[in-house]
Amino acid sequence: MTDKPRVWVSRPTFPDIVAGLDEHFEVTCEPEEIKFSPAELAVKLMDQDAAIVGLKEHIGAVEIAGAKRLRLVANLSVGYDNLDLAALTAAGIAASNTADVLNESVADYTWALLLGAARRVGAAERWLRAGEWKATKFTQWLGMDVRGRTLGILGMGRIGQAVARRAAGFGMQVIYHNRSALPAAIERECNVRYVDKSQLLRESDFLVLVLPLTPQNRHAIGAPELAQMKQTAVLVNVARGGIVDDAALADVLARGGLAAAALDVFEGEPNVHPALLALDNVLLSPHIASASHDARRAMTALAVDNVLAFFGHGPHAGRPPTILNPTVLAAANPTPS
Ligand code: GLV
Asked: Do 37 and 107 share a domain, yes or no?
């Protein structure tokens, strides 16, 4: 053992990027994707000064109880519902996420899902692979055009804005709902109009969810909300499982109360509600909206940068770029009087 601070990396990432820590830290990288129990996580964190973790690691009071050296948890995602920020802050442990570096990649993928659901790409491919393509029929596999239709966005942070900007190329009107309206200059630049949630539900032909999972947002789209949507509408969830009531969604889709859905995230993933799996008008993907080469490398680099900077190294020494609980940082580095 050296006396360098220790960093635990909970999953295989990009070794060439993580190697950037080697000069200043003793780094332990898990060689496989493992779903650790709270007790196993507590053991992993016990002797570490920092940890780079992902969404499958829930880090709260139980996991940090014995982690007396731990000063930073760097999350490999923009959403951080896996972190109990209050517990970390109370213990004086900083946390960071990977904000911004994945915005454009997630927005691209959102459109891949939206267009895929509108034009029934998943179902058509399954049909072709099943050897069903015996003849071409002019009126088979008809889907929905997006041009001229209304795109609704629930949650209008930077990813929502990147989704909205792309809509101009598809000739769509864009409405959105958020906790608060965007500044007028951003609304103009993104060509979006603020509406209340119920208007958003009633008027959207395509409804994209990009809001964080918080206790208030759990089942933000449940049976009552789905009932307000057009029967011809398409729902796209790239936010988090738990924001949509998956059982209610499957029920509405099966009854023809909604035309289609495209889902990248699920309640209880990696398990997917069996009723969704049974439906042909749902396009499903395994939580990969940020999984482009560029985005995943940039997310890893940002997590590494946060660790380096927190411990006073690298280009942002002392100023880790995406700290979620800056009060901890201020307490750790008080301004000299
Ligand atoms: C992925 O879901 C993320 O929050 O980065």
From this structure: no
Question: Which residues are catalytically annotated?
Answer: 240, 269, 287
Smallest CA-to-CA distance from 20 within 31, 10, 11, 29 is with: 29
With a 6 Å cutoff on the Cβ, whether 242 touches ligand 1 is no
The residue contributing the CA closest to ligand 1 atom 1 is: 77
Residue 334 has pLDDT above 90, yes or no: no
Residue range(s) defining the domain that contains residue 11: 6-101+293-332
Using CA atoms, how far apart are residues 316 and 278, in angstroms rounded to an integer? 49
pLDDT value of residue 332:
72
**Range list of H helices, 204-273:** 223-228, 246-254
Q: Are residues 126 and 239 in the same domain?
A: yes
The reported pTM is 0.96
Residue 1 lies in a domain: no
**Preceding amide of 38 cis, omega within 30:** no
- Pocket probe mutation, ligand 1, options 13, 52, 55, max atoms within 8 Å of Cβ: 55
